[in-house]
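Case study.
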Amino acid sequence: MTAEAAPANAGFASLDALVRPRSVAIIGASDEPARIGGRPIAYMKERGFQGELWPVNPKRATVQGLPAFASVEALPSAPDVAIIAVPADNAIATLDSLGQKGCRAVIVFSAGFAEMDEAGAEAQERLTAVARRHGIRMLGPNCLGVFNDAIRFYGTFTASFEKGFPIPGRIGIASQSGAYGTHVFAAALDRGLGAPVVITTGNEAEVALGDVIGWMAQAPEVDVICAYAEGIRESRQFIAALDLARRNRKPIVMMKVGRSQLGGAAAKSHTASIAGDDTVTQAVLDEFGVVRARTTEEMLDIAYAATKKIYPARNTLGVLTVSGGAGVLISDAAEQAGVEMPPMPEAAQERLRQLVPFCAPRNPVDCTAQVTNNLPLIGEFAESVARDGGYTSILSFWTQTAASRSVGPSLKEQMRKVRAAYPDRLWVMSMLAPDKVREYEADGWICFEDPSRAVTAIEAMGRFGAAFARAEQPAPEVPLPQVTLPEATPSEAVAKALLAEAGVPAVPEHACSDSEAAVMAAEKIGYPVVLKILSPDILHKSEIGGVLLDITDADAVKHGFATLLERAKHHAPSARIEGVLVAKQIPTRGEGGAVEMALGVFRDPVFGPVAMVGLGGIFIEVLKDVSFRRCPFDAAEAERMIRSLKGAPLLDGARGRPKADVAALAKALSALSAFAAAAGPRLTSIDVNPMLVLPEGQGCYAADAVIELEGGSH
Amino acid sequence: MTAEAAPANAGFASLDALVRPRSVAIIGASDEPARIGGRPIAYMKERGFQGELWPVNPKRATVQGLPAFASVEALPSAPDVAIIAVPADNAIATLDSLGQKGCRAVIVFSAGFAEMDEAGAEAQERLTAVARRHGIRMLGPNCLGVFNDAIRFYGTFTASFEKGFPIPGRIGIASQSGAYGTHVFAAALDRGLGAPVVITTGNEAEVALGDVIGWMAQAPEVDVICAYAEGIRESRQFIAALDLARRNRKPIVMMKVGRSQLGGAAAKSHTASIAGDDTVTQAVLDEFGVVRARTTEEMLDIAYAATKKIYPARNTLGVLTVSGGAGVLISDAAEQAGVEMPPMPEAAQERLRQLVPFCAPRNPVDCTAQVTNNLPLIGEFAESVARDGGYTSILSFWTQTAASRSVGPSLKEQMRKVRAAYPDRLWVMSMLAPDKVREYEADGWICFEDPSRAVTAIEAMGRFGAAFARAEQPAPEVPLPQVTLPEATPSEAVAKALLAEAGVPAVPEHACSDSEAAVMAAEKIGYPVVLKILSPDILHKSEIGGVLLDITDADAVKHGFATLLERAKHHAPSARIEGVLVAKQIPTRGEGGAVEMALGVFRDPVFGPVAMVGLGGIFIEVLKDVSFRRCPFDAAEAERMIRSLKGAPLLDGARGRPKADVAALAKALSALSAFAAAAGPRLTSIDVNPMLVLPEGQGCYAADAVIELEGGSH
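After joint prediction, the assembly is written out as follows.
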């Protein structure tokens, strides 16, 4: 689906003028280098911007030594990009002048719009309307701007350059928050990581985070994208951007805040974000292999490792260590992170044991401190881990050895040689040698002091690799059914029929108006059956004894039919009785009993229809053990969702049960997603709960279903 | 219980000679400073050890310039401590000589003992026997030794001092692994953290990790203990040590590896650890407020923060930030870590809003970048957070502002003043200003670049504080019952009766040999009842229809009694029939139904009887949602265990159920723990499953119970 929906790269290239301009006008240019309207000029002068720089200031002939223009109209031509650094009151008129001049890209520093109050929000709408009328790509308002050191363009008033301008590097930062975006930039700089392209989106009146990520996904300046989001405001460009980045093998590390209830509250007070539910965002990020960082440090750890551009599609980790304790610690971290550490081949283990009798050669491969007495062994062990183990990622733990005057140089040389012989591997060094890090990095190593942080980064590279590999497969076709929604919210029976037609089976049942029909229905469905009183006026059937279980023969059907009518007459004399519902009785307890699941769909305000699956009852309500996915998706994806549940072992025969028919459940879930995608925006939600899953080969049946439509009730 | 069981500080002071000796003999002393027998001498000469240094070497008159002794016998007197650096073959004889000389503390570097093979394990047993005969405290064998820079004592052959000797500090490191212990020492040194006391325990033939932690818990050299464990070998000293550290308000941060299955496998191949089950160890650590670090970096983060000795018993976090985004990120991290962030008082919020109109004063308090234009506001905001918010911990996020030439100095001065006015608070600074960290630390700040790491450290301080506060309460008395275990593993009925007597109620039931007795029993118990065939030869009653539910009157009892006997005769003609069991029927479904729980006890090889509670069925088997605790404990502790379960909301009326009788369940769990503690070592395990918990006020009943005894079966 997504492949078809994605626009060509050129769509995102419409931001080129914003990030890679050849001429820049600064409206509200200041002669003071420290003022908001002065900083871009000061930075570009200092760094040597490669294009034209046109300050606009009606009161001055020159600004910071450059000839100034009295107005937008006075500019020699339309600038590639204009920076609006005037008060909010003047911003709209200025934007209009720029549009008339032919300018098609604008960065609005001015604050006092939607982030402030209702009046500001209205002003922002007027501003945006002007931008759209002229076809202007507009960053902001209320944004810190953008910089691209590749061409020395500094369309920003950040104060972040006191400790230095960007160093060369391959990381791009896309951030909804100016303060946080430049914080990440500065934190990277402190670590020696180059992030020369930073784009902050502010109020996102026109250009949103998705546009910026999409631009980076196709821009040669950027290999790795660090993104910061408080809430995703639009989904089309955002999803197209994630898809493009994945197809172009550019990893995205995202800090999405507001995941906690607490954080969610703060996010809403901070911006007027239309924050989609965090769980849905997470599902979308998972879909495209975006790795969500838990901390800023983790974001930079992952970005740092990613700059090597080695993304194993099926990641395995080999660990070489001089400390058994560290080996165990790393094994713990790898299992926690879900990184596989297969053992070394037996023959290789045997050979290593002959080299160092008390080594532990399985994996982690502990060559023990013995090797420091016989240095060539280091290389032999490393070589064996790479060659015999065949691991895609190799983590080498050397604690202080790398800093040792006696052993360090030989260690470095031997490891360098082995690394160079296997350049396709992700080689990571964990060592306590701050002074040596730059030297090892020059040899191509990824260096972490803490081995646990190394494991986190290694896991992320594997996740990127798996996502990139998936992107190479043709997108699965999910045929959409023809769906005609009723005028009003349908009854349970109509809802089940609609879904059954779309491939979501319901418990077989028939409405019968007399006992002969009931017997025929029961014989057709097969015993045992359930009888339920059928009346639009009796909502809680069980309260009046209106449900009879374990009906096993024709006599019992007849007797039961009479009993139900009698009870209805007695307890609800004024109710309209339409007859009796005869339904297949699905056993839920005991040997061959069904597992109770719940399926659902709801319309996310940003991402549209989203399907959910969970184990019934307590699993959903108490443990929140559910999985989400954008609609539609195929049965294979549905099965991945089901398998990702913590309670999934229940479907695989836990507690002595037979295996449940997961294939049928996956098919039904996929069909539900296709139904939701085809139903259009009037569909508000669907609840299929319980969905009873019988043992393998016996299918699954919706025992209840509710479809809610916009504004509709019956 | 623990308070009584803990030995006086003096017990641990028996390690004084090992860590704080006035005279040191080195047996196997080498003239080569780089050899194992040479390093301790070289280090102590370089650092200026304050006591006597006696090299023992039969072949040399001097060793590294010091007069050497030909033998242990030739020493001028018994040394406070002797270092044995001779081959394993000679170690036992050397130890014996030292014992005869009157030496009572020995550090054994020699390897080739239990870590090697069976023969080594036997040699270690002989070595240990010699140590015990002489009353020698013995560290090792196969250990890297100990150092205590306070008196310049270096009883170690570590190669870790290439990058420097310890700097002053208050951290002690106790490690089962020499390589990892010195790795932590070196990692601390790289961060400017002083860890002048390091003790590594090697094979732990005599002195174990518990002794070392206990020594640090009473030693004035140490405020904060970093411990590394692969497996806990003995519990008495270990628990006494944790208890003493807690009572002396010394926090312990522990890295316990082998938590994963993978890691567990590696831990066993690395040492011959008798590793107690990780879950049990975790329960013991939780009991004493030991914080378990997930990574080495986290261990040092927590130790660093702990050196301030501010441990809030009820921790609340106030956050002051210049970035809204960072505020949300910190809120997310705090919620994740379980740190409370109560809002600022309304009046204070109003006042701050008047100072900076667009600030967000709730908590996180976002004073916005506006304050950098009006610097005195910084102090006013910080003061308000401390004074009005009253938070015990305050995290202040200033990103690069602290490094700014224009704003930085004023920021530092204002924050210094406020910090000094509230010295009892845990003040933490998150900033991107590596060059300024030492200056801020000199002002008393705890500094982290990453705010998420700051939150983790802050959470740990609160956990320490809560544990220290609990230690001030008198230990709850848990009266132990008189328990007389039967000769052999008892039947279900006997097991239930034994437990019921000890305060673990069982479902009321009576064995009845005729139908009159059955009717009397049913009337006494109250309807509905369950009837079960009673025969030692029929194990699976339900298979022959030997269980009847929903018996509601005397007639049904009589009829049921006859039915069961008939069925037994038919299906199991040779079975001995003892009659029928009449039991109270506890409803488990529907409105007033019971919640199914499971209680259990098992004997951990290290920590003795450990009790467990979990929600029945899938919760235990699929989700491993259980809580453990050493026996015995009181009902309040039992309730804390129950409340810690993920599924606990089920007991509190989730899904429309009535609240369950948690008080009765807690009482039963505590009674079970007392029973297990009183039963002695013959008790192997107890399973009470299901334990049916009725609505509040109606109690709980064991529906089944199994008690297993050592070697016993019936």
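Observations recorded in class. Confidence is low (pLDDT under 50) at residues 1-7, 262-276 of chain B. Residues 48 and 166 of chain B are 13 Å apart (CA to CA). We will return to this complex in the next lecture.
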